[in-house]
Amino acid sequence: MKKLNKLLTVVFSFLLIALAFTTAANAEESKSKVYGKLKVELIFPTNLEDVEGTEEDKELLLSTGWKESLDGYVREYPLDNTKIIIDDKEYTTDSDGNFDIDLLKGKQYQMKIKHPAFEGQSIDIDTNKGDLYVEPEVKVNFMTFMEDPSEDVDNTSSEVADTSSANKITTMASSGAHTGGFNGETVIKDGGHTDATYKKNSYVTCNRFNGSLGDQKYYNKAAHKVKSGVNFSWSDCDWAVGDSASPCLSPTKGDYASDPNKRYCKSFSISISASSRCSIDIGHKALYHKHTSSKGPSGY
After folding, report:
1. Which of 46, 88, 124, 194 is deepest in the core (most CB within 10 A)?
2. What pTM was computed for the model?
3. Which ranges in 171-271 belong to alpha helices (H)?
């Protein structure tokens, strides 16, 4: 009798183990995963051989994080610590923008991404075919993104700016180029294009040219594509593009929104809190400051 009980116990235990394995296997078979990477790309849609700049300029552009691609030259921003919502559940990307999410197989889902660049968008996820790799991305034309704050003025000047003689200096260079500016700005208008330089703590619409490897000069992007790209690299604006706190890439209020009156950094204001807002978003000051490394400025 004892032998029979032992035998029954062994058999029962074996059945329990087998059932557990079967249950686990069935559960595994009923799961599917969606995985991938979130990113934003600024696209420099040009062949560098077709634009101005020395070979050194072009090498510098590539050395500051721009990469060659089929679209031209791109600057990639992995969206780290970004919230993803699927089936009312929230997930977070890792430090490289990667995600790996278990879902039920045979169902359809919608993925929403809590980042200004993906505003109003949703991505269909179908797990009927098993594991699915997706790479949600937003591609932005760098030349559109870098449109001048106003069609006919420089980086900071506008009708609402302080135009008193105390803040405005105007001279005529021997070449006929107009130089002038507000609050520490020196504007050079020549040949139909606007360039500008700034003293420390000058008011600026956007600190998009204070990257550590550039020459700290605001260039008209149509006339100086390569130099604009170099100065943009590791500027405040560059850092803000990938920051989920900044709406720079929002299609309705970002820097390339279709309605220029709603663009985030396009309307100059003498108020520090209303200008250079991308700088504020990343914890830098809104006034002009020079970056001394790729990770930021010294004494900002």
Report:
1. 194
2. 0.72
3. 225-232, 236-241
User: Which residues make beta-bridge pairs with 108?
Assistant: 126
Name the residue range of residue 60's domain. 32-142
Per-10-residue mean pLDDT of the chain, 300 residues long, equals 52 47 50 90 74 71 85 86 93 94 91 86 87 85 65 38 37 41 64 74 81 84 79 88 73 60 54 69 83 69
Secondary structure letter of residue 92 according to DSSP? E
Residue 183 within a domain:
no
The single-letter code of the amino acid at 186 is T
Rounded Cα distance between 103 and 78, Å, is: 23
3-class state of residue 22 by DSSP: helix
In a domain, 152, yes or no: no
| Residue 37 belongs to a domain | yes
Least Cα distance to 93 among 37, 33, 34 occurs for 37
Give me the number of domains the chain comprises.
1
Q: Give yes or no for a contact between 154 and 185, defined as CB atoms under 8 angstroms apart.
A: yes
